[in-house]
Amino acid sequence: MRPRPAHRHARWTATQNIVRVAYPLFMLVGLNGLGIWLIDGGASRLWLGGVLAAAIVAAFIVERVIPYNHDWNEPHDDVSRDWAHFFVNEVANVASVAALPIIASLVPWQSRWPQSWPLAAQLALAVLVFDFGVTVTHWASHRVPFLWRLHSVHHSIKRMYGFNGLMKHPLHQAVELLVGVTPLVLMGLPFEVASLLGLAVAIQLLMQHSNADYATGPFGYIFALNKGHRFHHLKWAGIGDANFGLFTNLWDFLLGTWSFEPARSFTSDDLGIGKEPDYPTAYLEQLRAPFRPGNTEKTKP
User: Fold this and answer.
1) Which of 46, 79, 270, 293 to pair with 185, CA 20 to 30 A apart?
2) pTM
3) What domain count does the chain have?
């Protein structure tokens, strides 16, 4: 196993230690809880956009207070590209949530959704079902050639920071959403819960790709957070075929795809696609990349 890199702190200040513990609680419990409180109180769903904005601001600040890798806080010729991915994919997410009432009205049977449950419990159910669909799709995307070509856009990243959680080809995101949301729609997922699920997904992606060295303790084995997800982004084929979960590691344990070495460290040299070190970095080029002749396949280096 590799030693801890010099750019990571062997000893944190008291303030940094507080941030390391408080940050995941603030993001995962505090902001999702705020969203639930707003919707349960009848507030406009537009307020959830403000909650997401607060999450993005917090992610950028904390990544500079307790960075895992200082170099990953610096642009890698990817800032405008990642903003483009974020804007396009978030607009698509919002449009998908807005369309749910229309789609749900087409279901020819009575809703089976437990609407009598507390809103927090309904969101937990939605997260678990959605997590299964996305995990299976993610797993298949490393095995089905066309899905891999779409998914390879996301694996081309050379640094991990919160904002590139949504750096993915829009067609691949559409496939993930379709598989993850379909069972929920068939169950009669309410619009309010769908809105909260959209917020939870965005916050989770910020945390899963975060460059903040926040503390997870034993929860790092339960929830799909950044310490485990870095192993998924190892660039050599066959090594990164692990840790596919979005919210939890439950399905990875059941699939036998969980991998974690606590002492391992990561730099940009560990990330990307081994076969294509010069994978396109511009946004429009990345949209075209899956359809190029001879596009990347997962082969050993």
Assistant:
1) 46
2) 0.90
3) 1
